[in-house]
Amino acid sequence: MLEIFKEGLLGSLESVYSIAVIVIPLMIILQIAKDYNVLNKLSEYFKGITKLFGISKEAVLPLLVGIIFGISYGAGVIIQSSKEGDLTKKDLILLVAFLVACHAVFEDTLLFVAVGANGYVLLGLRLFIAIGITYFLSKRINLKDITSLDNGGEKK
């Protein structure tokens, strides 16, 4: 029994160490990028995404943050941008749809590669699915339907 506990504890500590080696540097890079406005500059290069999905240019930064650093930080940026009035309801729906399928691409991919997954296949499928779902939704979302959500789904 003691041997099982020891094996479980050591295995868990090794896993935590593997995760920390990936996550801690990513968080440091995020803070540096935030301090030097690197993410704002990067969003200028992704204007094609705004046309493809029909989202505002203000939605690019929250999308990039979510893709690169994950849902938790991306959600914080999305919520803040929404409170500031920078994002439309369509932007919010499409951001969430994309990030559900494809978030934290570096962190998640590296974590799964560490346990034996093929990173190229994993990343490619996640991007393909996220782009497909978001594009499909961007063409199907009707602004009338979105505004009806304000009334609890009741149509007037």
UniProtKB/TrEMBL annotation:
It holds the Pfam family Gate. The chain crosses the membrane at residues 12-33, 59-80, 92-114, 120-138. Residues 17-106 form the Nucleoside transporter/FeoB GTPase Gate domain. Keywords: Membrane, Transmembrane, Transmembrane helix. InterPro entries: Gate_dom. This is Nucleoside recognition protein. It comes from Crassaminicella indica.
